[in-house]
Structure formats: structure tokens, C-alpha cells
Amino acid sequence: MRRLIRLGLILALVCATSVQVQKQSPQKAPATPPLALSRAEGAAQETPALKAELAELKQMLLEQARELRDTRAALRAQQEKVEAIERQFQEQISASQAAQETAAKNSSELNVVAGQLGVVAQNTSDLQKKVSTVQSDLVAAGRTADGRFRQFGNFRFSGDFRFRYEPFLQAQQTTRQRQRVRARLNLTGNLTDELYGGITIASGSLDDPISTNQTLTNFFNRKTVGFDRI
């Protein structure tokens, strides 16, 4: 700082000396006092040193300007890095928020699925209980049926059922269409170790000893059932 002040004072002195010389050159120079002459001679002697200092000062200014440009460039690069880091951090925050939202959504869906699975498990348990109850009922019904069938001992049941359609289509005759059925039920068995017997019940008209067919289309006729064989 002191050096700069000194250079400024020297520049001001040089400028003042040159202006004074220019003003006095067109006219006849008066007699120069000894003091002014000594100052001019001193200024003339200091001019080379002043030029050197000015050159050095200029070089310093150029170096400072270059350093300032480098510093600005470094600051810009640093600012860009900071902005890039901020953008990356913001993206990470956004990704983290999205991940948290997705996790919350998945958690709610898992809770719903867990609830549905609980309902399904409960329904399955109820269904298994019902199946067990039905199986128990079937076993009990089977035992009951077995007990009832055992009451018949060695008796055996059999039978048959037949349905037949008989149309009568003749020229100059009344058309007849009969629907006939035959149903028979047989019961046979060993009454004792030496006595075997049975009975057959069949449908049909009691007046017809040949066929056990029962005509369904005979209106106002009783549908009788009789013993076919004993």
C-alpha cells in the first residue's frame, strides 16, 4: 500500500513538472531559480526508476487481474458443483419420498390381503367343520340304514320299471296313442335254512292276467297294483 502511494505521488510530480515545462516553452524562459532547477534535475533523475516501478505496478495489476479471473472461474466451477450436488440431493429426497409412499401403499395392500386371508381361513375352518358334521351325519345315517336292513335278515329286494309308447294309426280308424308303464317289485329270501320264498308286486289291470302293463291314458280308471307271484 505504501508503495502504491509513493508511485502515485511520483506520477503526480512528473505530471506537474511536464505541464510546467510545456507552459514555459513558447515564451522566453525566465531565469530559473536554483531551487526549481534542483527539483527538475531530481525529477529527471527519478524518471527511469519511476518507469521501472510503473512497469512493475502494471505487471502486478495484470497478475492480479489474471488471478481474479482464475478465482472467478474456480468459483463458477465450485458453484456448478454445489448446484449439481443440490440437484442430486433433491432427486434422492424425491426418490426416498416415492419409495416411502410405495412402501406405505404396499403395507396397506398387505394389510388388506392379510385381512382377506384371515376371512378365507375363517371360512375354510367353518367349511371344514361343516364337512366334518356332514361326514358324521353320513356315518350315522349309514349305520342307521345298515341297522334297518339287518332287520330284514336274508331278504333281498329287486325289481324293474318300463315305460312304453303305443300309437295306433290306421286308415278310417280312430287314432289311439297309449302311454303304458310296468312296475314290479320282488322280495325274496330264506325264511329258514330249508324254506325259501318270495313275493312280487306288479302294476296293471286286475282283469288282465296276461300283461302287467298299466295304461296311463285311460281316464277315470283306477291304477291298481296286485300280487303277481307268491
Biggest beta-sheet profile: 5 strands, antiparallel
Order of helices and strands: HHEEEEE
| Global structural class | alpha+beta
SS strand fraction: 15-25%
How large is the radius of gyration? 67 Å
Mean pLDDT: 77
Beginning-to-end CA distance, first to last residue: 150 Å
- Estimated helix fraction: 55-70%
Instruction: Provide the low-confidence segments as ranges.
Output: 21-32
The backbone outline, from C-alpha atoms, is rod-shaped
**What is the β-strand count?**
5
Tally of alpha and pi helices: 2
Describe this structure as you would to a colleague.
This protein has helices at about 1-25, 35-150; strands spanning about 155-170, 175-190, 195-205, 215, 225-230. The chain has about 230 residues and is of the alpha+beta class. The protein has a domain at about 155-230. Strands 1, 2, 3, 4 and 5 form a five-stranded antiparallel β-sheet that branches. Strand 1 and strand 2 (about 175-190) form a beta hairpin. Helix 1 packs across helix 2. The longest helix has about 120 residues, at about 35-150.
